[in-house]
Design brief:
Blueprint lengths: L8 H12 L3 H14 L4 E7 L5 E6 L6 H7 L26 H7 L2 E7 L6 E7 L2 E8 L4 E7 L15 H18 L4 E6 L2 E6 L8 H6 L7 E8 L2 E8 L4 E2 L5 E5 L2 E2 L3 H10 L9 E2 L1 E6 L5 E2 L10 E2 L2 H17 L2 H4 L2 H4 L9
Parallel strand pairs: 1-7, 12-15
Antiparallel strand pairs: 1-2, 2-6, 3-4, 3-6, 4-5, 7-8, 9-10, 10-15, 11-14, 12-13, 16-17
Helix pairs in contact: 1-4, 2-5, 7-8
Length: 348
């Protein structure tokens, strides 16, 4: 027999899961996106053991039939896209058809769901990627996904996890980001049965700032906006005296999708150039609304990265949006020179 041979299905599933499910917060992110794509207006997140013992996400969205639920736990099945061109017309958070299959491959997962108007719901149980049960269940409309014993069948992954408190912090950060971009959805986070965070429905997105970022931002965040053709830049930026020791106070969203992006981060920092110390970072919530045809979100399985077809315009627009706000405040209003400085492009 030759050296090259096909991998067993269970190994393939675990490799694929490793790209999507890095830690408990990855599971929460995927389930929150599913809940929002299903039209959920109220989402409850319950955690035990920092997410290693239990993650349960319950929503009041449209729910699934038994046929849909059985398809949902298979790889590369989705309701979000049908053709190649749909990848550049995405208005949903999910689209890869990997999340539930990946989660089920490394946990004991249970899905209970009922589509509104149907008499009975469905319960699906998957353990280590193997379907263990499928049948009717009594439940309200919507969906509840329960994930127990994360990485029970890949114990080597445990050493890469941090303490339960640290993992819970990552989960809280994911929920805060999701809440910032979805102010008309109610979110709750429970750990060991105790309510840790609550985000009531908000008609005004700015009302979420204190809830998500902390009390120290109250009265210190200012709205900004800038438009270049179909590209819209907006959000809230803190006064120069409101800073952090790292960039975790900078929240980036592209078409409401939370992202990690060096170009956008550089644009935010450039907007504050000469206003804050070099070793400090501003607090900002940046929303980039771009035509879907101009953004590639199919860059990484975790869906944290994006590519812009015209990154230079996006970068300059972010800087101008933030500087435009600062020019209307005491920090730059008296310093025309500061606002007219040449815009630096990110190196590399």
């Amino acid at each position: 027999m030759g050296k090259i041979k096909p991998l067993p299905p269970e190994i393939i599933a675990q490799i694929a899961a490793g790209e999507v499910v890095e830690r408990p917060a990855s599971v929460v992110k995927e389930l929150l996106e599913n809940a929002l794509d299903a039209g959920g207006r109220s989402v409850k997140v319950e955690i035990q053991g920092g997410g290693r013992k239990l993650i349960r996400v319950t929503d009041d969205g449209e729910g699934m039939t038994e046929e849909e639920a059985l398809l949902a736990v298979q790889r590369y099945t989705t309701s979000k896209i049908e053709a190649q061109e749909d990848l550049f017309a995405l208005r949903t958070f999910g689209f890869r058809g990997e999340a539930l299959a990946a989660i089920g491959a490394v946990s004991r997962m249970k899905i209970i769901s009922r589509r509104d108007g149907q008499g009975a719901g469905v319960e699906i149980r998957v353990e280590g990627g193997v379907l263990r049960h499928s049948g009717e269940a009594g439940c309200p409309s919507g969906t509840a996904v329960e994930v127990k014993d994360l990485f029970f069948n890949v114990p080597a992954r445990f050493k890469f996890l941090k303490s339960p408190g640290t993992e819970l912090g990552h989960i809280g950060d994911i929920l805060a980001k999701t809440a910032l971009a979805n102010s008309q959805t109610r979110f709750q986070l429970f750990h060991e049965g105790k309510l840790l965070a609550a985000y009531p429905l908000r008609e005004d997105p700015s009302a979420r700032l204190v809830e998500a970022l902390g009390k120290d931002v109250q009265g210190k965040m200012f709205p900004f906006q800038y438009r270049q053709g179909e590209l819209k830049i907006g959000g809230f930026a803190g006064e120069p005296g409101l800073t952090r020791s790292n960039s975790r106070g900078i929240y980036l969203f592209v078409n409401r999708r939370p992202v990690r992006d060096r170009l956008l981060t550089h644009g935010v920092l450039e907007g504050y150039r000469n206003l804050i110390p070099r070793d400090r970072y501003p607090v900002a919530v940046l929303f980039v609304d771009a035509p879907t045809s101009e953004v590639d979100v199919n860059v990484h399985p975790g869906k944290w990265e994006v590519k812009f077809s015209d990154s230079e315009t996006v970068h300059r627009s972010v800087i101008r949006g933030i500087r435009g706000m600062l020019e209307e405040t005491p920090w730059l209003k008296t310093s025309g020179a500061a606002s007219s400085q040449a815009i630096r492009e990110p190196s590399g």
